[in-house]
Amino acid sequence: MGLSSFFKNLFGTAKDSASDLATQAETTFEQVKEAATPYIEKAETFAEETIAKVKEASEPILDNASEYAHNAKEIVSEYVEKASDSLSDVIDSVKEKASELTSDTKAVASETVADISAKTETTADQIIDPIPVKE
């Protein structure tokens, strides 16, 4: 029986020790929580103040950025119109030159056809003349 009382005392003591440790841990946790609360509140206040300062400091910068964006938009619009006009001029010029080239090509083609036609008639006459006509 000495062995069973030994185990009962051993496990009973361990159970009591574990219970005591759990109680102490809970108490310590509560103490840490109470001690940390003012620091947490200070950190929250600091964060809120910092965010407010950043918002305040960034407002003029955002306003300036908005103004610059608007100015850039106006400048780009001017250049878009100028570029559009320039492109229209280039397209018109290309159309005129293409029309001139087409007219020139038609004239050259007509002259070439007329020249070939005349040469063909001359050659045909030369071929027909040497053949004697039979009666």
Could you walk me through the main structural features you see in this protein, from its secondary elements to its overall organization?
With 135 residues, the protein is mainly α. It has 1 helix and no strands. The protein has one helix at 2-128. The radius of gyration is 53 Å and the shape is elongated. The mean pLDDT is 76.
Tally the helices. Answer: 1
Shape: elongated
What is the average per-residue confidence, as pLDDT, rounded to a whole number? 76
Main beta-sheet strand count, sense and barrel state: none
Strand content: under 5%
Q: How many beta strands in the DSSP annotation?
A: 0
Helix content: over 70%
Q: Provide the succession of SSEs.
A: H
Could you tell me how far the N terminus lies from the C terminus, measured between alpha carbons in angstroms? 164 Å
Q: pLDDT below 50 for ≥5 consecutive residues: which ranges?
A: none
Radius of gyration: 53 Å
Provide the structure class: mainly alpha
SSE inventory with pairings:
Elements: H1 2-128
For the structure shown, list the relevant keywords:
Apolipoprotein A1/A4/E family protein, elongated, mainly alpha, 135 residues
Quick structural gist:
With 135 residues, the chain is mostly helical. It is built from 1 helix and no strands.
